[in-house]
Amino acid sequence: MHTETTRTAQDIKAIQKRVEKESLFVQELLSEIGKVIVGQKYLVERLLLALLSNGHILIEGVPGLAKSLSVKTLSDAIQTKFQRIQFTPDLLPADLIGTMIYNPQEGSFSTKKGPIFSNLILADEINRAPAKVQSALLEAMQERQVTIGDNSYKLEEPFLVLATQNPIEQEGTYPLPEAQVDRFMLKLSLTYPDRKEEWEIIDRNAEVGFPPVRKVVNPDSIMKAREVVNQIYVDEKIKDYILSIVFATRNPEVYNLDLKDLIAYGASPRASIYLNLVAKAHAFLKGRGYVTPEDIKAIGMDVLRHRVIVTYEAEAEETTSEDIVRKIFDEIEVP
Amino acid sequence: MGIDKRLVKFILISFGAIDVIKLLKVILKMRFYLVILLSLIWVFSASSWINSQADSVYGEQSLASGGQDRTMETKIQLEASVDRPELPFNEKLTLTVQASWDGKQDRFKITPITPPECQKFEILGSSSVNEAKMVEGKTKSTKTFEFILKPTETGIGRIGSVLFSYVDNVTEDSSSLSTQPISVTINPPVEKKASRYKILLIIAIALIFIYVIYSAKKKTKKIKIADQTEKEVKIPEKTLEERKLETLSDLSLLISEGKADEFSSKVYKLTTNYLEEKYQIFTTGKTTNDIINSLSTLNLPEEQIALLKDIMSTCDLVKFAKEMVEKERCEEIFSKVKRFLEQNVK
Questions:
Q1: Closest Cα partner for A267 from A164, A137, A149, A178?
Q2: Pairing between strand A120-124 and B163-168?
Q3: What residue ranges in chain A does DSSP mark as E strands?
Q4: Secondary structure of residue A147 in the 3-state scheme
Q5: How far is B323 from chain A (nearest CA, A)?
Q6: In a domain? residue B2
Q7: Which residues contact A204 (CB under 8 A, 6 or more apart)?
């Protein structure tokens, strides 16, 4: 196996060819989802990125932005199982992962698997459930296996959790701690569609039901694509750029950025890992066998916005982590 | 802390840092005049200080302790005083005799007073002043005689009585008053300390004078040189494109050395630097696409934008995908950048 530094131009050309071959389904998939979902290209692209780089997504956005429909449509198009779990204050870990049920006739326990045994999971309003339910989900996300009774069960691949948080109502919720939020590869911020898109949404919803979604790829193709994504070439200059970005969130003064008083905690090493992985997936979506700074900039905000914790001073000045990340990307020199 | 920094930044922006720099430049240019102004201020302050030193040497003596005498008459008050109770031999003493009364000046006819008899003093001169003023609605008149006395020897000097005769024009009464004699100590002569400062002052003025002449000569010389330079044939400054073309030709060495990666990185940097200088666009945090998008808003010819995109994308390929190890590809980039710069020269 080649390391990044020993790769030759010939190796990269070979990867390029593989990427071109394996990423053919991407455009087809996007257009198929586009038949049902209007706009939300950003959301659908990020779902694919997480799927290809084996990560999970946290979405913060107001209700009614087609989050469930997007995941459901994607699931149909890639022929995977989909589950939507509404998180509520009375939800128990067993409701999520499953439990042992006693059969009095046979005098034995049988395992009843929970809704987490699926490929694509929409954990709706994750902050409404108590901490132990959140922990159960996050553990499953991390370990990719679930223990019921004495037995551990592997979760089926691909496994993607799309958790949502409602930013409007905070009464009686259990906000995810920063350490838990860090486990999500991407945090997305969804906004309302523009006027033109919403016009089309009205037209499409004038009739009952959505057009059927054609099955574009199967889970095996997704797993194969993941292998190719892993091989995508990341030059040392790009790695250096990633580290500059991440270190600038920790020690902005070293990079001549006047942000020290605004940042309480910088991004964790997970940020560097995920920036690298997601950038590769982004390059794959664009049909490239190598990563460019464009890829880093395209996905940087989604990887970093929940990993930069702002100070009270920043909050008082209404400076968000997004403002800080944007400033860092504007100031750090692109290789 | 952050708020303070932002406040400072705001103030700097409000007042315009560039203006501050301009102001400093003007101050530098005006330094000649500033030196003169500062020197004048210094001279003025120094002379004031010298005067104050002189005052402190002689000292102001209280008239009350100066051996004054007051002979009360019902209508006229007479006072005699000296400006100090003791003095050095090489200085002069002032004796003041003042007669004051209520009413107008012409109320009394005053006989001219005779100068006092003095021991160890000689009278150099005298003067008199008449004054009338209103105090609380009443007229008050004063007649002041001043005698300048010069010591003739050291020791205790004595100033004799001054006789003052007058006739009341209203009652036609005549009377006379006299002052008490006054003793004054005459000390040996004292050298004036202020003379040292006077020398300093003269030196300072001389230095300023020399500096003024020197500066004037220098200025004249500069003007002459500037005139001569203007007269000489002006060498035209190189344009931005010409300078970049020179740098580009230096980079061509890297192609022959087979350093394709370094060549493309430097050519990319040269291109972005050129765009920054030419179109004032900020390229530090921008990717190739960002830069091309910025250029699209500048109404550049599409052909040029396409050429730039081609150059920068090819450089990206070399930088990030180890492409273009061949010499021919490097030469292709070289000729494209050259073409782009030459197009802009035209």
A1: A178
A2: unpaired
A3: 57-60, 82-86, 98-103, 108-113, 120-124, 145-148, 151-154, 160-165, 186-189, 263-265, 309-310
A4: strand
A5: 6
A6: no
A7: A38, A210
Rounded mean pLDDT of B253-261? 81
Asked if B2 lies within 8 A of A235 by C-beta distance, the reply is: no
Give the pLDDT score at A221. 87
Rounded to an integer, what distance in angstroms lies between the CA atom of residue B181 and that of residue B157?
Answer: 10
Residue A61 Cα, gap to closest chain B Cα (Å): 28
Instruction: Tell me which chain B residues have a C-beta less than 8 angstroms from the C-beta of A323.
Output: none
A79 with A188, same domain?
A: yes
> Which has the closest alpha carbon to B69: B116, B104, B28?
B116
Stretch B178-203: mean pLDDT: 82
* Within-domain flag for A97: yes
Taking contacts as CB-CB distances below 8 angstroms, the residues of chain A near B322 are 7-9, 12, 233, 235
> Is A134 found in the same domain as A72?
yes
Quick check: B50 pLDDT over 70? no
pLDDT of residue A304: 93
Q: What is the CATH number of the domain that holds A108?
A: 3.40.50.300
* Residue A248 predicted with pLDDT over 90: yes
β-sheet bridge partners, residue A146: A153
Percent of chain B topping pLDDT 90: 3
Domain count, chain B: 2
Residues of A in contact with B284 (CB under 8 A): 330-334
Tokens found for residue B33: 């005049």
Q: Which structural domain, as residue segments, surrounds residue B252?
A: 240-345
Q: Which residue is closest to A234 within chain B, CA to CA?
A: B320
Q: Are B66 and B84 in contact (CB under 8 A)?
A: yes
Among the candidates B171, B187, B203, a domain finishes at B187
- Cβ distance B321 to A235 less than 8 Å, yes or no, reads yes
Q: Once rounded to an integer, what is the mean pLDDT over residues A15-29? A: 84
- Interfacial A residues in 243-262 facing B (CB < 8 Å): 258, 261-262
Q: Which two tokens stand for residue A95?
A: 């409701």
**Is residue B158 included in any domain, yes or no?**
yes
Six token digits for residue B341: 């710069």
| pLDDT tens digit sequence for B84-106 | 888 888 888 999 988 888 888 88
Give the per-residue pLDDT at A210.
72
Residue A235 pLDDT > 80: yes
Locus of tokens 């429909």? A69
- Assess A12–B contact: CB distance below 8 Å, yes or no: yes
Do A220 and A237 share a domain, yes or no? no
Smallest CA–CA distance from A233 into chain B, residue: B321
Residue B173 lies in a domain: yes
Cα angle at B48 between B45 and B50, to 5 degrees? 110
| In the predicted structure, residue A30 carries a pLDDT above the cut 50 | yes
pLDDT score for A127: 86
Structure token digits, residue B9:
């930044």
Interface of B with A (CB under 8 A): 1-2, 5, 284-290, 316, 319-323, 325
